[in-house]
Model the fold of this input.
Amino acid sequence: MTTAIITLASAARLDHLRRQEEWIRIVAPDCIRVVVQLDPEPDHAFGGDALHVPPGADGLRLAAGRNRGAAEAIARGADLLVFLDVDCLPHPDMIGAYERSAGQDRTLLCGPVTYLPAGVIPASPAEADRSLAPHAARPAPTAGAVQAATDAEWDLFWSLSFACTAATWDAIGGFDERYEGYGGEDTDFAHRARAAGATLHWVGGAHALHQYHATSKPPWQHLDDILRNGRLFASTWGRWPMLGWIEAFAEAGAVENVDGDWRRVPPAR
Done:
């Protein structure tokens, strides 16, 4: 099996990308490596092999970037596509766990993700186990176990770390490139996968460690992206995604539901 690791990156995450590259050289030196830069202009700091997908009118084109990275990986002979967020470091067992679970086509594979606290970064992959604390919102089977997702768990699909065969990717048709900016494109991808007859499995031992960066809860800087992409999702699937964030915005008085459509509250006159 020929495996590719595909990562989307920007200049703001260059340090995280470099640390990820260091770990990949140790734990997966034989994998095809595809990096897609999402900044407006290509940056030579990413190296001459990095692909470039500039932002669209509404922000970073994450969906288009993943599609471009997958096409490059498949063109270079990849049988298995592993998508790893730029903030994520691969556990020494991650690639092997995905490869051992990839025998069935039309299957999405998701490993556990640990969010590292501020100031905590294992010195090397050999020390990764000391920091493992998988996010409680998603199933985390024991190493070696593969657990089929229930119908209710499809919305738990994250693009932070997942894998599928090239055949499965082709059957799904990739990500919907109408999504730009923050949010919604990965949940849409999961629904596209299920509509294409795919299954979703949680892969024990396929750990990724998410490097810390500051965030806001709810993500106010992405409010308009969430409304725009949420509306696109609703027009396709008949319901709104990201309701946790939307309801937090509503509680703060920033958005309201008008006839089933979430929108900004007009400024007071």
